[in-house]
Automatic annotation (TrEMBL):
Pfam hit, one: Glycos_transf_2
Protein name per its UniProtKB record: Glycosyltransferase
Domain Glycosyltransferase 2-like: 4-108
InterPro entries reported in the protein's UniProt record: Glyco_trans_2-like, Nucleotide-diphossugar_trans
Lineage: Bacteria, Pseudomonadati, Bacteroidota, Sphingobacteriia, Sphingobacteriales
SUPFAM superfamilies in UniProt: Nucleotide-diphospho-sugar transferases
UniProt GO molecular function: hexosyltransferase activity
Annotated source species: Mucilaginibacter agri
Length: 299
């Protein structure tokens, strides 16, 4: 399997070299590393220049700031079109077997005619690399239910930096809207609606939490039931319509763009979820709990 690693950078000099080395030290070597820099003003470009001269890394500096999603879209478009693609953030660290294990799983499900992807769990670490939780899925409270299209609508479970996907999904990257918040949930929606996506329940990336993260979500689970209850009460009091607002916006945008291409059962699933959008907070919360019970792994 020929793999292109695609990375975007912006003022990421502090951790960038560590991540590049973890990619170069993979047991399954990528054939190319494509980096798009969004006009960094720190030492990022100097690090990229160093590794371009020494290794199979190619970097491109944007003529203007593109932002997180548009920068990834550009970077994916620069990868060799026949290659499989693995996305990389600038501030993480991959375990040596990350690509090898992901590729083995992807080969089991791959169909070149449809978008296919695999994604893994992560170690969640702080800025100095100390472990916060050995499972980011557990940190987000997602370990108790199946990861499928319906559960994705309620709570995204895909981190882009863990993904490996086939050329067909890479080709579809160009169609992603520029104004979506995150590309990874959109990738998952495309794969689970029109193709295949599989989760590898093993942490293969050290996912760093620090002040400048572009993608660490704020919805990790609170540390106690009391904090969780307090958080829910605050949401209900301050703004009942805020609950899952981002999820509804993303799913609605996806549905409007692709509904004519969906099968009847997928279209029904999207409509049922979107019908919750203007319901009271308690209805949304009950629907979320119902989804967890429906797809529970404790049956």
């Amino acid at each position: 399997m020929r793999i292109s690693v695609v990375m975007t950078t912006y003022n990421g000099a502090k951790y960038l070299e560590q991540q590049i080395l973890s990619i170069l030290n993979q047991t399954l070597k990528p054939v190319e590393i494509i980096v798009c820099d969004d006009r960094s003003t720190d030492g990022t470009v100097a690090i990229l220049e160093k590794y371009q001269q020494q290794q199979r890394l190619k970097y491109f500096i944007n003529e203007e700031r593109l932002g997180y999603v548009r920068n990834f879209k550009k970077a994916v478009s620069l990868a060799s079109p026949e290659n499989y693609v693995a996305l990389s953030d600038q501030d993480d660290e991959w375990l040596p077997e990350k690509l090898e294990k992901s590729a083995a799983l992807l080969q089991c499900i791959n169909d070149s005619s449809i978008p296919c992807m695999v994604h893994t769990d992560l170690f969640w670490v702080n800025a100095d690399g100390s472990l916060i939780n050995p499972s980011f899925r557990n940190e987000r409270g997602q370990q108790h239910y199946e990861l499928n299209l319906e559960s994705l609508m309620f709570n995204s479970f895909v981190s882009g930096c863990t993904t490996l996907f086939n050329p067909e999904l890479a080709r579809r990257f160009a169609d992603f809207p520029d104004d979506i918040s995150y590309h990874d949930v959109w990738m998952a929606l495309v794969s689970l609606t029109f193709g295949k996506a599989e989760h590898l329940a093993e942490s293969l990336v050290r996912y760093r939490k620090h002040d400048n993260n572009a993608s660490v979500s704020g919805d990790v689970k609170p540390k106690s039931r009391y904090k969780a209850l307090f958080k829910q009460i605050l949401v209900a009091i301050k703004d009942r319509s805020h609950f899952m607002r981002s999820e509804f916006n993303t799913v609605r945008k996806f549905y409007l763009l692709y509904k004519d291409q969906m099968s009847a059962d997928k279209k029904h699933l999207f409509k049922r979820f979107l019908n919750l959008q203007h319901k009271p907070y308690i209805f949304k919360k009950l629907a979320y709990r119902k989804m967890i019970r429906k797809h529970s792994l404790k049956k």
